[in-house]
Design a protein that fits this description.
single chain, alpha/beta, 11-stranded mixed sheet
């Protein structure tokens, strides 16, 4: 059974001091280095013991069978406990309920270790520590899992920052499972983003442990507060009823700038709790960077955070980095070039806010060129055609007027697709553009980089729950209460982006209308974000000021490729449409090559054909794409072999996969034949080379 270990109800600083000053059990048997205090940045710490039967570290007591079933329900959906929130979050992280047709749960996943099924139900006994650094909007959450069977003679820590904008448990079913199977401690962090919110109508906020309640009751434990006074809240709710602020967009902290710091802090916390929980067989000098193997790893935003930590670490805390489809804003390339198939790619190294703001403008029009693509059925075709016409003009990034005159109205979708390719998207990604249309992403990042308040309503955007007409309405208590496990780091589900400036009044962005009263996918708002991402000469003063704030925040997040010699392995799908390879892994390989001192490449990169940013098995994805998660797990295994001195990392390469085929929704099961391994000695025609600052991709 779990046993609570919350610190005594003393003032927090006093509680920590009192706990650490108390004699440690068997202290005389420990070397002085093992009696270290908790890191000074920790402001709250709890400890929970799991017996591996009723509850555990990997499956939250559900076992693999339970992870394949429906999400576990809370006894009272309006008031789920912290334990119930944790169980739901861990269930979500595993993804096993999606079925095994795409290989998850058979060829890879939390129940597969080194290619073999994990026997039994997979429950892992051990201790879970939860910690917080900072307070309120500036807080960062951490979880450290220490399995009972940790290899204390050869200890290891896997640092797994949250994927996307997800919560602190979002990597339990992937990197966490891999680390626990390898008898490592696992350190997680939400990177200061996470799912915390502030419902400005009801006054409901989220605590660090995921529970929710009135602001006044949770004071001191609130993971995010919009920063408005009572009078400002009342005015805001009267003018914009039922809106919600959320941490990533409205914290005013630009959390992406401190991703690397947060991952390093998670590692230091892991070493500290290992030293506090001394056991026989531990390293004589304690758990230190010298005695403990540390692997930083993540997916998407988490992959970018792992890379950021590798760059920020100049003291040897991290031994290696593995990143899958990493979202990274790169430093200026300054001569780094990317070529594919002998041709220069049209654009490389753009930050997410720029390529995504541009994509959002183009995607409704470009989608008309792919009528069989997933998501097309929801497209408003007349509105998409109006978007096509609105893109024609003098902006070379959109649809040039001369090209439009030659192509005619029916040719505009093709020109929009070509504009996306000029922006660095892969030609094959056209099929995915409609399913990736998501104006929330550039709007959120614009607010985060510019450190905007919810009260600023930057570019006329807000968030709220809406009714069937798209009008904002109050959240139900259960929707707010369950946000820790159901939110992806944005407004609590089912909250959506709101166009505050729609002529008929505030409405869901997807129902926004233009000045003529016709649906236009909020062209006005998307153009506003685009202009902030790509500042224009002669813009109004307010626009210039916001654009400057955004640029300053963006510059604080850039990666330069200097990993200080750490072995690093990156995997990404060639067809990635959320984080295009030309703006992420490919140019980063060039930056890393330039930063590398001495002979040999510290960074290896595997580019997977027929893979993209999601392992969705929905109809239309199942028969065309293979799961990148399979290669992420393989990358972790390859790096482990490297860290154990048993093999070198494979050279950078293209891995040529075979789609499952069949009809959409009826693809045959994925087999090993569809997903050949990353090769130790790839064919010459598959090797990715970096020479003279040019990344050459076959």
């Amino acid at each position: 059974m779990p046993h609570s270990g919350r610190l005594p109800a003393l003032p927090l600083a006093l509680a920590l001091t009192a706990t650490l000053a108390a004699p440690l059990a068997h202290a005389a048997d420990r070397p002085p280095s093992a009696r270290s205090a908790l890191p000074s940045f920790i402001s709250e710490l709890t400890k929970q013991r799991y017996d591996g039967r009723s509850d555990d570290l990997l499956t939250a007591g559900l076992g693999f069978t339970g992870l394949r079933g429906p999400m576990p329900r809370a006894a009272d959906p309006d008031r789920p406990t912290a334990a119930e929130q944790r169980r739901q979050a861990i269930w979500s992280s595993a993804g096993l309920s999606a079925g095994s047709g795409g290989g998850l749960g058979r060829l890879y996943g939390p129940d597969v270790d080194r290619g073999q099924p994990v026997p039994g139900e997979g429950k892992v006994a051990g201790v879970e520590y939860r910690a917080v650094a900072g307070t309120g909007a500036g807080s960062v959450s951490f979880v450290v899992q220490v399995p009972d069977d940790i290899d204390r003679a050869r200890p290891c820590v896997v640092a797994a920052p949250a994927t996307g904008l997800g919560g602190v448990h979002s990597m339990v079913g992937t990197a966490g499972a891999w680390g626990l199977h390898h008898r490592c401690a696992v350190a997680y962090t939400d990177k200061g983003m996470g799912p915390a919110f502030d419902d400005l109508h009801s006054g409901t906020v989220m605590a660090y442990d995921g529970t929710t309640g009135p602001r006044a009751e949770l004071r001191g434990r609130t993971a995010f507060d919009a920063g408005l006074s009572d009078a400002e809240r009342a005015r805001f709710d009267a003018e914009h009823p039922y809106r919600v602020a959320y941490k990533m967009a409205h914290s005013g902290m630009n959390p992406q700038a401190t991703w690397g710091r947060d991952v390093l802090r998670s590692i230091r916390l892991a070493l500290a709790v290992l030293n506090r929980d001394w056991r026989a067989g531990a390293p004589p000098a304690g758990y230190t960077p010298a005695s403990t193997t540390v692997l930083a790893t993540g997916v998407s935003n988490g992959g970018g955070a792992a890379v950021a930590a590798g760059e920020a670490d100049r003291t040897g805390l991290i031994d290696a980095v593995v990143a899958s489809e990493p979202q990274m804003n790169l430093a200026p390339l300054d001569g780094i070039r990317v070529r594919q198939g002998g041709r220069a790619v049209p654009a490389a190294g753009l930050p997410l806010i720029r390529y995504n703001a541009l994509a959002s403008l183009l995607q409704p029009c470009a989608a008309l060129a792919e009528p069989t693509a997933p998501g097309y059925a929801a497209l408003d075709v007349p509105a998409a055609r109006r978007r096509c016409a609105a893109l024609v003009g003098d902006d070379p990034r959109l649809i040039p007027r001369r090209d439009a005159e030659r192509a005619g109205p029916d040719g505009l979708p093709r020109l929009a697709q070509e504009a996306l390719v000029r922006a660095g998207f892969q030609p094959r990604s056209g099929y995915l553009q409609v399913s990736h249309y998501d104006p929330q992403t550039p709007a959120s990042y614009a607010m985060s980089f510019a450190r905007a308040s919810v009260d600023d309503a930057l570019c006329g955007y807000g968030w709220a729950r809406t009714d069937s007409s798209g009008s904002p309405v109050p959240y139900r208590p259960a929707e707010l209460a369950g946000a820790f496990s159901t939110s992806v780091g944005r407004a609590p589900a089912p909250g959506v982006l709101i166009d505050e400036n729609s002529p008929g009044g505030p409405v869901a962005d997807a129902r926004s209308v233009g000045p003529g009263g016709e649906h236009d996918y909020n062209l006005r708002g998307e153009r506003c974000v685009y202009r902030l991402a790509f500042p224009r000469p002669g813009a109004p003063r307010a626009e210039r000021d916001w654009a400057a704030r955004l640029a300053e925040g963006l510059d604080a997040t850039r990666r330069d490729g200097d990993l200080h010699g750490k072995p690093t392995l990156i995997v990404q799908g060639r067809d990635d449409t959320r984080v295009p390879v030309n703006h992420s892994s490919r140019p980063y390989l060039g930056l890393a090559s330039r930063a590398q001192d001495g002979p040999g490449a510290a960074v290896s990169y595997a580019e997977i054909t027929h893979a993209h940013h999601s392992d969705s098995q929905a109809a239309g994805f199942d028969n065309r794409y293979v799961p990148l998660g399979y290669y992420y797990q393989q990358a972790l295994d390859l790096m482990w072999e490297r860290l154990q001195g048993r093999a070198e990392l494979p050279p950078s390469q293209v891995v040529r996969t075979v789609p499952r085929g069949g009809e959409p929704g009826h693809a045959p099961e994925l087999t090993p034949a569809n997903v050949p391994p990353v090769a130790a000695d790839p064919a010459a025609g598959d090797r990715i080379e970096v020479t003279g600052g040019t990344v050459r991709v076959p």
